[in-house]
Model the fold of this input.
Amino acid sequence: MNRSKHLLCLRDWDTNCVLETIGIAIRLKNEVRNGTYSERLKGKTIGMFFEKNSLRTIVTFQVGIFQLGGMPVFLNPDSIGKREDVKDVARCLSRWVDGLVVRCFEQSLVEQLAEYGNIPVINALTDDSHPCQALAFGQTCVEHFGDDLKGKTVAFIGDGNNVANSVMNLCAKLGMNFTLACPKGYELKKEVINVCSPIFEKMGTKYRTFNDPKEAVKDADILYSDVWVSMGQEDQKKSKREHFLPFQINDELLALAPKHCKVTHCLPAHRGEEITDSVMENMQINLSYEEAENRLHAQKAVLCKLLH
Done:
């Protein structure tokens, strides 16, 4: 399987591929703002399988496919992995649709669909990875900090989860420093760090982990936040809240960061938990809604790149 023909996780794409996709996203965004729409997907159909709940992902993919002249085809949540073997589903879908967008729990499902089918598969979120979110974040960074992001520092405050995984991969490839601030025991997996460490070293940048958020924000250009409890982990909510409350992004923590520091959240935000209402409502520093807007254009760019 040629992994570069899919977007299964961001570690599969090199720096040039990531930068090219971000560039396409910015051009597509400008097209929309100028009232012009390309038809790069005219006549193409994109299967959409959503095992997990969604607002931003399902809306932005559906709107994006429409804007590019294609048609989304929604698959029943029980249609993959339950009624028949994934191999058979992948081979049948490959004869009907031109691409497949998958939001599910297990990373192994998107891997199998890519292995046994012959159409591009796009990971729209798994428990391990969220590459589309990271690309939208990369686009947001370019729009605010310029084309050269080398040396900028992203401080991810919270759990070493799927979003942290993908954002770290993005930072490594774009020459940005990545800092994770989390309670002990919630760090990124060693195998994830081991993949990125040589890239950080090659780029002359660094990966750091702190168990004290105050230390993590001192040199940050942007703080990244995500929910403490991901979908499917609801039984951990009480215990996680106790561990993570000191890692809330609030006005006091922001005061310790450089004055130019921005904040973003991949959303949905649980105000009063991982981030306060006052920070979310501070539009001078909060880039969350711009990143959400960029999900539309970054995902369109992925579709254009893989289904050209």
In short: The longest strand covers residues 45-50. The two ends are 19 Å apart (CA to CA).
